[in-house]
Amino acid sequence: MSIRENVQAVIDGTLRGEILETFEAYYADDVVMSENGVEDRVGKDANRVFEEQFVANVTFHAARVGRVVVDGDQAAVEWEFEMTPKGGARITQRQVAFQTWKDGKVVREVFYYNKG
Length: 116
Description:
By secondary structure, the protein is of the alpha+beta class. It has one domain (3-113): Nuclear Transport Factor 2, Chain: A. The chain has helices spanning 3-15, 19-26, 44-56; strands at 27-35, 38-42, 58-71, 74-85, 91-102, 105-113. Helix 1 packs antiparallel against helix 2 and helix 2 runs antiparallel to helix 3. The mean pLDDT is 96.
């Protein structure tokens, strides 16, 4: 599959609510991820724990995709999520996921969003 096809597969899996399954299928064992480029989480095991905690602590209501840009081994996906954090109020979070791909897997992903 091409990078564009893999990016679409990640989008489709996320939209179906299969966040953890998509993570397992499309992220490299040595993936590095971070929120707003701060405090890299290194390795699939560390990132799996983070993803599991995130999914367990929010209720998703809707997800939408805006622009998708693929250039070589880089991709950027604009997301909008409607969710309710446990114990919190319903929010809309807009973010961009910037990905680097290698051999059909995400090797780096940074989520950029406004925390306020």
